[in-house]
Amino acid sequence: MIDSNYFRQLALSFPGTAESSHFEKTSFRVNKKIFATLSVDTRIACLKLSAIDQSVFCVYDKMIIYPVPGKWGQQGWTFVELNKVKRAMLKDILTTAYTEVLKRK
Prior knowledge:
By secondary structure, the protein is of the alpha+beta class. The protein has helices spanning 4-12, 51-60, 71-74, 87-102; strands spanning 17-22, 25-30, 33-39, 44-48, 65-67, 77-81. A hairpin with a 4-residue loop joins β3 and β4.
């Protein structure tokens, strides 16, 4: 089980990452672009992936990692259930999201 503090520490460990609010969530940004959001209440993170990376991570377990419904999900936005995901998988998917947004200058 991943708690909010661990997620925050991990997200902020990437170079150039800033934390700010985004509606009712906390966002994590690089180059002013969001690569992850965190909903503390629901314990769900939302990460920006490429379509290919999204399909790869969702194969892991569609009850833990799954596309956001509708157009956002088609653009690579992906939910991660923090109550269920393993630390190593979270680190991999968060690194992938950070890298995806970082390369889109």
